[in-house]
Amino acid sequence: MSDTGARAAHDARSVRHARYAVAVVFCMHGAITGSFATRVPWIQDHASVSPGGLGLALAFPAIGASLTMPCAGWLSHRFGTRAALRGLLSLWLIGLTLPSLAPNLPTLCAALFIYGSTLGMADVAMNALGVEVENRLDKSIMSGLHGMWSAGALLGSLGGTLAAHLGTDARLHHVLTACLLTLIGVTACRWVLDLHPEPEEEPPPRFALPPRSALLIGAIGFCAVFAEGASLDWSAVYLHSHLGTTASVAAASTTGFTLTMAVARLSGDRLVNRFGPVRATRGGGLCATVGGVLVVLAPHPAVAMVGFGLTGLGIAVIVPLVFAAAGRSGTNPSQAIAGVATIMYASGLVAPSAIGAIAQTTNLVVSFGLVTLLACGLIAGARVMRTDSGRAATVATGAAAAEPRG
User: What single-letter DSSP state applies at residue 316?
Assistant: First the structure.
């Protein structure tokens, strides 16, 4: 085999290894989130905060993430993508242990701000690396990576549920989880792509507003995350209070929605590779819209459950496609990814409270009418997800720039 052929084979193996490594990172990211979410009641009791205080504190992860995500590109430029991702994951795992140590509301807010800041930067770094691997493979993998995140969140939730059932102190649970996942994450990062800028390349700013190229893509992400957040947080309430189901049936609807999304994401790359991102987005938007209509018009709980399932099925591939489109939208993938991630985090923060506020003044049917309208926006705006014919050139420029993402 010639030197050129041997080099090409080595590069192909490196990209395959990088794909598996970043998939492990996505799974790990989800596991951290699931581990934290299951112990929130313990943390609330330990810090002696009211429901209103807890609601305030839980806004701080999104605030921290939104403020610091744009820094991820600078860190990757400064230290290289591999070192930056390894460092951010390690910092986030330290951040995981802080909320359970908080004795009161102010310290809990501060701990959750740190947790969210490191979460957001790690999210940007891993999504940008996923986009780079996708571009080098020249086929969709982002949906599967986000499916791995969902699988990790499920594993983390199961572990947290077991720990809570056994009465394990959350401080011990999170310290042990952090140690185990740090070992996994540091090991996986050995095989992710290690990208460095060219010597003459200007570093990105430490903080920058989202580029204009990311705004329309971010709007698609806003619609999808709004529908996801509203369905996750309010589907059980909708079935229980509006349609009169039992609490167990209502909870089963939320579980079904989560599983539908996970399965759809794990298998979504085939759909994207076959039909392309625009038609996949349009089809997903149509599916979510039909689901929203069924929820709004449901005469029976079973119809609403089907509607929520269709909504989850429809929006499952949208968020991965948004990250992929952002990574191809300009010369600095990490800045664009950070921009759309900030918009989507804002949507996730706004959605639950917006649904509640509308329901307070009208009812939940009107609230999910808004969700259905936003799902229609996915159909109308699908064209912004089109693949750039010059994708490879864009990636080559942006990858070195700084970068390496539900």
Answer: T
| Residue 59, pLDDT above cutoff 90 | no
Quick check: 400 and 197 in contact, CB under 8 A?
yes
Q: Are 159 and 363 in contact (CB under 8 A)?
A: no
Domains of the chain in sequence order: 3-191 (1.20.1250.20), 212-402 (1.20.1250.20)
Nearest in space to 74 (alpha carbons), one of 88, 66, 84: 84
pLDDT of residue 7: 65
Instruction: Encode burial over 246-281: b for 16+ CB neighbours within 10 A, e otherwise.
Output: eeebbeebbebbbebbbbbbbebbebbeeeebbebb
**pLDDT at residue 396 greater than cutoff 60:** no
Segments in 316-363 forming alpha helices (H):
318-327, 333-361
Contact 406, 319 (CB under 8 A): yes
Mean pLDDT for 397-406 is: 35
Are the CB atoms for 152 and 30 separated by under 8 Å?
yes
- Geometric angle at alpha carbon 260, from 251 and 296, rounded to 5°: 65
**In the 8-state DSSP scheme, what is residue 385?**
G
Whether residue 322 is predicted with pLDDT greater than 80 in this model: the reply is yes
Q: What is the mean pLDDT of residues 69-90?
A: 90
